[in-house]
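Bumping with the actual sequence this time:
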Amino acid sequence: MATRSRFAATGTVLGISALLLAGCGAAPEESSSSNKEASDYKACIISDEGGFDDKSFNENSYKGVTAAKEDYGIQMSESQSESAADFNPNMSKLVQSNCNTIISVGFALADTTKQAAQDNPDIHFAIVDDGSIEADNVRPIVYDTAQAAFQAGYLAAAQSKTGKVATYGGAEMPTVTIFTQGFKQGVDYYNKEKNKDVKVLGTDSFTGDFTDQTKGKTLTQNFLDQGADIIMPVAGPVGAGTLEAVTEYNKSHSDAPASVIWVDSDGYETNPNYQDIILTSVQKKMKEAVESTIKDDIDGKFTNEKYIGTLQNDGVGLAPFHNFEDKVSSETKSELDTIKDKIVSGEITVKTDGTPTK
């Protein structure tokens, strides 16, 4: 475990550090560092090509840094990438801007982050959605989203009127398939428990990128044509195409409308124009983990120990049902709670290609 830092606070460290070191995604507490010391600290963040307004994991991670800035009075710098070609120059810019810690968002930045960490051992790094880097000055922040996606699959199967649901990804990679595979396992579990035969469409469907919303819309239209009435896109900004397609579909199918399960952030909050069609979201609570990682570094408690968000530590979970609160039965809600308890206890095992390891 690495604990060295270019910035060590002198005050008493509060309980949040111990909680996070134990893998808990607890809400950050007020920093023990003095305002003067914190004002000299600089946290930086670099996005992948989705940008900070992707309504997904870039945006949520960004909120973690801005929250730290507000809560602890630190300085902040950012670099938004439009394509992979921006990764190295954007990282170089941050390295040269006297950052104490740099947050990289997304597995696509793994190579860039690894090289920057090797070249700059006095800077602390954290990378969201990648657990491949082993270095004294890099903290991986990853999520076992299959657990919450399992719940989402069960919910979708329970809510479906057509007996068909769908999911698809942007690119075929573990951080995407962890959602789609967990979702399917949840549907399968529902079928087993209820003696039903709800079908899952699209588990092997990928648009090939995270930027072309037209692809997401076309794929969703195909699912709707095949009878799917609940769809979970795992494709960042591409998911906006799903929201458009479902909205258009519902205009002529008001008697049997379709709905969407969002991922990463609470889609009800990040997509206010589509609140009427968002059933729930499979959340990765990146804001909390990012802010807590920065807070630990401010207090001289940086660690390279991998953070894994789970149902147990509230790092992942289903978002509120919001407009669908009255449309989800009390029986289904109770069953979802039971499923969570069984996953936490190990009675239900959710295993996917992307399931993170310690």
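The tokens above came from a reply further down the thread. The radius of gyration is 20 Å.
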